[in-house]
C-alpha cells in the first residue's frame, strides 16, 4: 500500500530537501506489501494543527538495498520466512479476507473510500496526535472522530491503526489506550525511553524513533557497531553528516554529542586504530531505561513475527534478562543484610551502652 507512506509524510516538518523516510524501511525492510514507508512529504493541514503544519519535501526510492541492509543490520533485515513464503502468506491472507464474512464485517472496506482520502486523514491524525504529545494531553476516540475523522467515521479503525503505526515507527511514540470504557489514549515514548530530543521550538519533532533504530543496530551487531556501518544505514535513509534533516537536525551532532551527553550512546575510538576509527555502544542510560528484550519484541511486533524467530538475539536478550534478575536479587540481599546489621548494631548499643 503505497498510499500509507504519503500519509505519514504529510505530518513531517519542513526545513530540509532530504529524505524523511526510509527510517521505517530500515526497521522492517521485508514488511508485508501493504506497508511501504518511504516518506514523501506533502503539505500538512495548517488550520487545525498549526504546530505541526510546516512540511518537508523529499523523494526516495521505494525499495531498500538488501545488500546494504544485511551488512548493516542483520537482525533488522532478517526474516524467518523466505520471499516465496511471504508471497504465499499474503495470497492466503487475501483469500481469507475475500471468503471470510466475519473479517469483512470487522474492518471497513477501504476500497469504498479513495486511498488518497484515507492518506489525508491519516496525515491529519498524525498531526493531531503529535500536537497532543507536545502538549502532554490525553485524547479520546470521540475527540479524534469529531476533530479529525469527521464524516469518515466508518473508517476510523483503519485510519487510527495506520496513524498509530506511523507514530511508533517514525517518531518512536506509542499511542496507548488507558481507559477501554471511554477509549482514552495517552501518548508516550516507546520502550521506556524518557528522552525524545524535543526542544522548545514549536516545530521540534520527537527523535525517539531514530534512537530506537540506532540501539537496534547496535544490539544486532553484538553490542558494538563500527561508526561506518551506522552511517551506511543512515545514508540509505537520507540522513547525512553535516546536512540538516527535517526531523532529526544535523545527525552527526545528534549521535556523537547529544545522545552521548544524554548517555544513551557511548562513542569511543576503536583500540589501536590508525587512522582513528570510532564505534557505538549502548550508553548507561539506555541500559537503565530499556532492555534488549524490549527492543527485540518491538522489532518483532512491527515486523509481524515473534522474537523467537530470531534465536541468536532472543537468547542474548534472555541472558540479559537473567543477569538483570540476578543483579536485583543480589541487591535485595545486600540491602537486607545491611539493614539487619544496622539493626543489630543499634540494638547492641541500646542494651550495652559504653
Automatic annotation (TrEMBL):
GO terms for cellular component: nucleus. One of its GO terms (molecular function) is histone deacetylase binding. Signal peptide: none annotated. InterPro entries: MAGE, MAGE_WH1, MAGE_WH2, MHD_dom. Residues 118-317 form the MAGE domain. It comes from the Eukaryota. Residues 44-113 are annotated as: Disordered. GO terms for biological process: negative regulation of transcription by RNA polymerase II. The keyword Cytoplasm does not apply. Pfam families: MAGE (PF01454). Residues 83-100 have a biased composition (Acidic residues). This is MAGE domain-containing protein.
Amino acid at each position: 500500500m503505497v498510499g500509507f507512506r504519503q500519509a505519514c509524510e504529510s505530518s513531517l516538518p519542513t526545513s530540509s530537501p532530504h529524505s524523511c523516510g526510509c527510517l521505517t524501511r530500515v526497521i522492517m525492510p521485508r514488511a508485508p506489501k501493504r506497508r511501504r514507508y518511504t516518506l514523501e512529504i506533502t503539505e500538512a493541514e495548517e488550520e487545525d494543527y498549526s504546530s505541526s503544519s510546516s512540511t518537508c519535501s523529499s523523494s526516495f526510492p521505494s525499495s531498500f538495498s538488501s545488500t546494504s541492509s544485511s551488512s548493516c543490520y542483520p537482525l533488522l533485515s532478517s526474516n524467518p520466512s523466505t520471499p516465496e513464503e511471504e508471497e504465499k502468506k499474503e495470497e492466503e491472507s487475501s483469500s481469507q479476507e475475500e471468503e471470510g464474512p466475519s473479517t469483512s464485517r470487522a474492518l471497513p472496506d477501504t476500497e469504498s473510500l479513495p486511498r488518497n482520502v484515507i492518506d489525508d486523514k491519516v496525515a491529519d491524525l498524525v498531526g493531531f496526535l503529535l500536537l497532543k504529545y507536545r502538549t502532554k494531553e490525553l485524547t479520546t476516540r470521540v475527540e479524534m472522530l469529531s476533530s479529525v475523522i469527521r464524516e469518515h467515521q466508518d473508517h476510523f479503525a483503519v485510519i487510527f491503526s495506520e496513524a498509530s503505526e506511523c507514530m511508533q515507527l517514525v517518531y518512536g511514540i506509542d499511542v496507548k489506550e488507558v481507559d477501554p470504557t471511554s477509549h482514552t489514549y495517552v501518548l508516550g515514548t516507546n520502550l521506556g525511553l524518557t528522552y525524545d530530543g524535543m526542544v522548545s521550538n514549536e516545530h521540534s519533532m520527537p527523535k525517539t524513533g531514530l534512537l530506537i533504530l540506532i540501539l537496534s543496530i547496535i544490539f544486532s551487531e553484538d553490542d558494538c557497531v563500527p561508526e561506518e556501518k551506522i552511517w551506511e544505514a543512515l545514508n540509505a535513509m537520507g540522513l547525512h553528516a553535516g546536512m540538516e534533516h527535517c526531523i532529526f537536525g544535523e545527525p552527526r551532532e545528534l549521535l556523537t554529542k547529544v545522545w552521548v551527553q544524554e548517555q544513551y550512546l557511548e562513542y569511543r575510538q576503536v583500540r589501536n586504530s590508525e587512522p582513528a576509527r570510532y564505534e557505538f555502544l549502548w550508553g548507561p542510560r539506555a541500559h537503565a531505561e530499556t532492555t534488549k528484550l524490549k527492543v527485540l519484541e518491538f522489532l518483532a511486533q512491527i515486523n509481524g513475527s515473534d522474537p523467537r524467530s530470531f534465536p541468536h538475539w532472543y537468547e542474548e536478550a534472555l541472558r540479559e534478562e537473567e543477569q538483570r534478575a540476578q543483579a536485583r536479587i543480589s541487591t535485595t540481599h545486600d540491602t537486607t543484610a545491611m539493614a539487619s546489621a544496622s539493626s543489630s548494631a543499634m540494638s547492641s548499643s541500646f542494651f550495652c551502652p559504653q
